[in-house]
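Sample entry (243 residues):
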Amino acid sequence: MVRQRKNLADQIAEDLEKAILNDRYRPGDRLPSVENLAEEMGIGRSTLREALRVLQARGQIEIVHGSGTFVRKDRITQPSGELISFTDIVRERGQRPTSVILRKEVDTATEKIASKLLIDAGKPVNVLKRLRLADDYPIAVETSFSAYERFPDLFEHPWLPDTSLYEVFIKNYRVYPHYSEHTIRAVRAGRVTSQLLQVGPKSPLLLVEFVTFDEAGTPLEAGRSWYSSDRFEYRVTVKAHRR
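Predicted structure, serialized as tokens:
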């Protein structure tokens, strides 16, 4: 009896997979609720849930707690060797980048942040924390710190949902980001971050700690970003070491 249920769930998963491949459900689309979809397909809810778990394991759908089940989009890729803002990466994919500002204020620099920005601890810094989205789909939670003395009145400029921090640096301060150093490691989502990114508690995330420099090698900003590992990836080019 258990074997029959498993076979039925596999068949339902194949039917849903064909519907996705045939563009009945497109990337980013939300599937009907379990109740409605089970009724539409004439099967039990438990069988449908098992089929959805099969598709989730294959990486074709994403079950977002509290929001529903979605056809998974391709991951947003950050290429190595090129300094490009999140805004431009998303635009190049033909998607709409937006941000929700979670924190925007002037604070005092901790010793850790001061050492990254090469300023004295206790000096004023601009703190910008945002939820970054692509086509209204949450991708990352990002916190950026910059020296207030170098970028005074940063938050007096208009901040729209699609405002790029790099563009503000360039247009309003004539400061050009030149290169950035990133440290990447795997972490688990905390309670607040999981809610913002709409992932399950303790889901795997990519934590990227970064410092961005101008052409003279002076730090412009330092910060950290938490990316959903299902929606974002780094592509790194590694060259052979010549002796």
